[in-house]
Every structure is written in structure tokens, then in C-alpha cells.
Structure prediction request, 514 residues.
Amino acid sequence: MRTRLLPLLIVLLAGVLLALGFPLAISMAAGEQQKVIVDRIDDSARFASLAQFVNTDGGGAGATVEDAERSATLDTELGRYYRLYGIHVGVFDRLGEPFATAPHSWHLPPAEADASLPGTTISQGGASALPEPTGSVHSRARPFQDAGEEARSAYDEALNGRRSPDPEQVWPWQTSRRLVVASPVIRDGDVIAVVVTDSPTGALRSRTLQKWLLVAVGEGAAMLLALGAALRLTGWVLRPVRVLDATTHDIATGRLKSRVAPTGGPPELRRLATSFNEMADNVESVLEQQRAFVADASHQLRNPLSALLLRIELLALELPEGNEEVASVRTEGQRLARVLDDLLGLALAEHTEADLTLTDIGALAQERLSSWRPLAEEKGVRLTGTCPAVTGWADPIALSSALDAVIDNALKFTPADAAVDLTVEARPGEVVITVTDEGSGLTEEELGRIGDRFWRSNRHQNIHGSGLGLSITRALLEAGGGALEYRHHHPHGLSADLVIPRNRPANTAPLTGE
Prediction:
């Protein structure tokens, strides 16, 4: 369940972090660019204030030494600004002609109407540009360097007396993007020129990328913290479920004393654990009552049955020898006595806990073979065995009873001159005792019912038995953590596997002094 719940929480947390991270990253990039734009606006406004007082008479009679000094000051400031920051800056008149620029050859691209004259200065209607002062950083003898269409658009917007609109957002991967800002130069309410700045974006993109990396690191750290919180949360929520699942498995495998231990978790799951313990107590109580009833009934019926059989024997003494009715009653009475004995044995097997010890399974199996060999020889059945020394955890008395029941069952259904074979085999984590007979065997449907209480095959009703022997065997083995399994034996017959654990089962206490 944790593997299904945890990815869902991680996806939700990642979605929340991304939903917060993307707007934050966009806001950071926009904030960094806005700082640069505001700075360029301040710079262009300062240059516009210097260009505002430059004489525009083209060096005519009105030009003075003070005008030349102002023009030279503007030219010097632009050059220093370019050398210090690497930002292209220029003052252009209303015809787009450069008055002062840095670098020297930087100029605006021609308007669309004059695009047929690339690389030349356009003179429109004989209008004169602002005079170029001596020592200007702008040199018409040098080749032009095109400022780009963005600079032209910003210049055209500033001619209308408005500052150029903010450039589009620059992203870290746009290595060729530049920021262009244009401000009008206004004198007596008229726009006489435009200051244009064209800034590289390398530093801007680097700062934006650094902040994005910080955001990514923060998102990663937040994701790790969220993952840790999700692990703790799922563990807290699912811990009672895991305990409940383990306890349910214990009860399903016969350990009825198992209960859900008090754990943390949501109140609903704690109440579920309490209700489960109450249910397990009630189920165990009902089963105990049933077992006690079967044991008591079997025990209480033995005395009246014994007295009844004794009276039948006394009655038989007064009747002629070979009376069939008396023989029939005697046989049914003895059969009823065996059923009561088996019921009592089954009740005790299901009620008594196994006393497990480390047992030599091979030696125990060899002992039981020796005990049953005289009966096998009497029936003409070959009883063979391979019993190497292998240890396992078992209750010796219970295992002996289980082996007796399985060997007895095999001898019942094996014809004369056939064989019953017993082998002891060590496997990873378990010891398997296999008892194979050469009887008539069972069908698939009958094989699925073997071991059910009071069940016997219709083909074997004439063979004495109560149908409880294998049920008792299975109960004895399961009480010690083992199992009883049946399968077909080819060409005919059955194989019974008695499985005994090689390691001490988890629900048993360690031996004293171990």
C-alpha cells in the first residue's frame, strides 16, 4: 500500500512546488530586467539633459565656444559610458542622423523608405543635423555598425515625445537579445533629438540564471523535506495497517492468541485495531467452546458406550453362537467407540499447543517404520524407508502420532505384494517426510477433499475408519508450524508430504539455556 500511496503524495507535492516555482522564476526574471530598464532610463535621461542645451544651428553664426564645449562634454560622457559599461549609446536628430555616438560607427538602421541605401547617411529635404563637434567619438569615415531594428523602433516611438516601451522579456537562453531604451530630448516643448541606449544582456541573463538556480536548489530541498514528511506520514498512517495485516495472517495460520499491539496512527485505525482484537477474542472464545464441547461430549459418551458394549457381550452369551444381529450391533458399537476416540483426539490436537524441540526427524521416522513393519508383513505389503539424520523443530509425540496416521492410512489402501515407501529429505528451511503408497489413488475432486472431517471416498466405505485420522494429523502438524500435503503418485497411488520446519517458528519460545 505504501508503494501506491507514496508516489501519489510525491506527484501532488511536486505539482504544488512547480506551481509555485514557475511564477516565482518568471517574477525574478522580470524584476531583474526591470532594474536594468530603470537604470537605462536614468542614464538616457541624463544624456538627454546634456543634449538639450547643445546648439542645433549646425555651426552657424549663432554657435559659440560654450556650445562647442557642451557638445564636446556630451561626446566625452558617451565615450566614457561606453568604455565603462560596454553599452552602445547615441544621440540622433529627428532625421535619424547620429550627432554623438559611442562607439564611433554606431548608427540607426535606415527607415523602411530609405532601405535601398544601406551603409549611407540619408539626407532628407536638405534638413541639417546637429553639428558634429571637434573630437567627436562619432566618425563618418568609419564603417557603420547597424543598431538593429529594435533600436529603430524605440527611436521612432521616442520621436513622438514618449519614452520607448519596455522591451520584451529576456530569458537566459536568448543569447542574442539586447535591451534598447530610447528617451526624447525636448527643448521648448519640441523633440529635437533622441537618446538611444543598446545594452548587452549577458550580465542580466547570468543574474537571472543564478536566481533560477537558487530557486531550483530551494525547490529540490523543499522536495526532499516533503519526501521525508511524506515517508513519515505514510509510515504513521500505515503502521497500524501493517500490524493488523501481520496479526490477521497469524490468526489465519492457527495462532489464535495473536492480537494487534497498541500502535500510533489515525484514530480511525486505532479504533479498528481495538475492534479487531474484540472480534478475535470472541472468535477464540467460540472455538474454545466448540472444542470443549466436542471433548466433553466424546468423553461423556465413552462411559455409556462402554457399558452398552458390555451388556451386548453379556446378551451374546445367552444367544446362539454366530448370531448375525449381535455381531452387527457389536461392530457398530466398536465403530462408534473409534469415532468417539478420534473426536477426542481431534479436540485435543486442536486445543493443545505444540511443545517444539529440536528433533532428529530421521531417527523418529525410522522408529515408526520399525513399529509398523510387523503389520505390513502381516498384510503382505513391503514397508521400506530411507531415513538420513536430519534435524527439525517438532513435537516428537505429535509428529509420531501424525506419522502413525499417515502410515496406517497408506497400509489400509495398499494391496498385497505392493509397497509403501517412506523417505526423509532435507530442503531449504524445511524437512519433508514423504509416504508413498501403491493403492488405487483418488480423483482430482477427491484429492481436494482429503483431510476434511468425516470425509471418505465412496469407493472406500467398506474399509474401517472414521474419516478423522488425517484431520487429526493435519491439526497436529499445523500446531507446530508444519503442514500435510497430498498429491498423485504415478502410475497409481498417493504421496503424502509431512512438512516440518528446520528453524524454530517465530511464535515459539526459545529453549531454556539456549
